[in-house]
Each structure stands twice: as structure tokens, then as C-alpha cells.
Amino acid sequence: MMYVVTHKYFSLSLPSGYQKLMVGKNCLGKYMDGYIYDNQGNNISKKNSSYCEMTGLYWIWKHAINRHVGLCHYRRYFQRTAVIGFPGRPFPIEILDQYLENYDCLVAQRVYASRAEKTIYGQYCSNHYEKDLIILASTVEKSGNLYANAFGTLMRRDYFFPYNMFYSSRELMCDYCSWVFPILSECENYIDTSKYDLYQKRIYGFFAERLFNVWLLAQKKKILEVPVMQIGTSFVSRFMFYKSQKLHQFSDFLSLNSQIKCNSSEQ
Description:
Blueprint: E1 2-6, E2 18-22, E3 35-37, H1 48-51, H2 54-63, E4 68-73, E5 76-78, H3 93-99, E6 105-108, E7 111-112, H4 120-127, H5 130-141, H6 145-156, E8 159-160, E9 166-169, H7 170-188, H8 203-219, E10 223-226, E11 228-230, H9 235-266
Parallel strand pairs: 1-2, 1-4, 2-3, 6-10
Antiparallel strand pairs: 4-9, 5-11, 6-9, 7-8
């Protein structure tokens, strides 16, 4: 089952195997047929303003019984291409299931930090508060050296897999959730968001985007990067973003080749 997290009602027709999941329902109005809500049963719906789609993932963790589960967004879906595809046509669930025959987890195609930001550490600090990231790092360290080392590796990279999107076995999802939610909860004890604007208050959703990468690194999961189609963006916008990301990839490829040649000449 692919759960489509949303904070508002939308009319897009979804393939079989996709389920609309309304998050932050405690702050919303009427219920509608065709949706499930993250304030039903065991939930953390009241935290949606700071946890974003993670209140949806928490609900999935506590309630989903499907063999394979995933999370996407009402305007972001896995597709064959992020540029030329037809908006509104997510991958059929059967294709996602086929991918999992050879991979542990499907993730959103990597996004690179800008040249000015240089690393994921720089990217986070450029858009959010460095002091919070330091608290997150110290909290992750309590999970052990395996995760602390993976966190350091991610922070030095110039790319990560964004949006908290995935498709995997339910077992993998449960293992990840058992690790990530206690970390997010503990960070709440040390971070004061009372003076943050609405965007910066989404801090635990931003944390989780990085932590998912950390967990995948530490667990050495075999992942497949899948393009993400963003509904509501123009072809020109999609193409320009795609072009900038490909330039990053080419630059990384040249840097890697240069490093390999340098190491070979030293031997």
C-alpha cells in the first residue's frame, strides 16, 4: 500500500493500491469518504505542525498491515521520469513491488546541495538553525557509533534523498520508525520552537528527511533512487531543476575520477 500524505482534500485519481492519508486532522474540519485520518487510533496527529508528514508515517507504523508500504505526497509521486512524465500518473503499485524484488527500499532521487552550501550540513544550516542540528547530532550519537558515523558521513555529502518518501517492506519501515521517533521525541526536550515562524516550526519533518538517510547508511540497505514527479510545477521548472541536478552529478563524477587517478599515481 502506498499512502499519499496530504493536509488538504484533492481530486487526483490514484491507481489501485494508493490510499489518501489526511494528516493534522486535529486541526481540520469535516471527514470525507476515500480518506483515512492520522488522528484515528494510536497517533501523534497533534504534532503535525512540527512533524509534517511524519505524523502520517507514525500512523502507518501503528496501523498498516500490508506486506509492502510506502509514503508519498499529494503533489509528489514516484514516476519513470521527473521531467517528461505525465503529471498525475504515479507508478502503478505493481511496478513498485517489482522493484522491491531486487532492492530493500525505494527512495526519492537524490537532491544536491547548492555550490554555496557545499554539503548537507551547509544546506541545512543555510535554510534552518545550526544550533538545532548540533542538538540532533548529539542525540543521534546516543544511538551508538554506527549511527553517529553515518550521521557524519551524510553531513559531509553534497546530496541526500529528500521528502521522507519511500516504498519498502513493512518490516523495514517498522525498524526505521522504532529508531527515528524516539530521537525526534528526545530532541523536543532540548529545542524551543516557540519563537519560530510556521516554516521553521516544521523542524522535525526536516530532521527526519536527514535521519532517514542516516538510518539507510547505517543499516547498509540496498536502495533504488526513483524520479519524483511534482504536481503543479511547470515543465520549464522541472527541466531547470533536473538540469542543475545533472550538472552536480557530472561534477561529482569528474571529481571522483580525478581522485581515483591521483590515488593510482601515488601507488
